[in-house]
Amino acid sequence: MEEKRYYATGRRKTSVARVWLIPGEGGTITVNDRPVEEYFGRPTLIKLIQQPLELTNALSRYSVKATVSGGGISSQAGAIRHGLGRALAELFPDYRPTLKKLGLLTRDPRMKERKKYGQPGARKKFQWTKR
Fold first, then answer.
1. Is the pTM value of this prediction over 0.85?
2. What would the pLDDT profile of 17-38 be if each residue is shown by its tens digit?
3. CATH label of the domain that carries residue 75
4. Is residue 113 assigned to a domain?
């Protein structure tokens, strides 16, 4: 009999992460079929991803498989964190208020502002000359 897997989608900026929580298997985290240490070089990003798992004491009890696309590595790490938070809220309903208070269930709404016509960027203006 196959054990139940928990699935959630996480988003951050333009990154989308599909996250599966698999019971057992000793707490390995795989991102796009590569170990998390290999995919994300920075230890701070790895710590960011592990934050929801450490909070619910699920780091050693569940394995994580994630597929992520779009954005940069920091944005992708944030998307995986969001997806993990959602999956853990489904798995442990009693942890939901704690996860919500720490902002792990909230999608970060900050996006890149669009470029406007008649300007070189979103906010920057062309140089103004009086004469």
1. yes
2. 999 999 877 789 999 999 999 9
3. 3.30.230.10
4. no
- Token readout for 7 is 């699935």
Note the maximum CA span of the chain. Answer: 80
Distance linking the first and last C-alpha atoms of the chain: 80
Structure tokens at 43: 């230890």
Residues 49-95: tens digit of each pLDDT: 999 999 988 888 899 999 999 999 999 999 999 999 999 999 899 99
Range of the domain at 87: 6-101
Q: Is residue 57 situated within a structural domain?
A: yes
Among all chains, which residue has been given the structure tokens 């590569």? 34
The one-letter code for the residue type at 35 is: P
Question: CB of 56 within 8 A of CB of 92?
Answer: yes
Token pair 């009086």 is at which residue? Answer: 130
Can you tell me whether residue 31 is helix, strand or coil? strand
Going by their DSSP bridges, the two strands 29-31 and 62-69 should be labelled as parallel
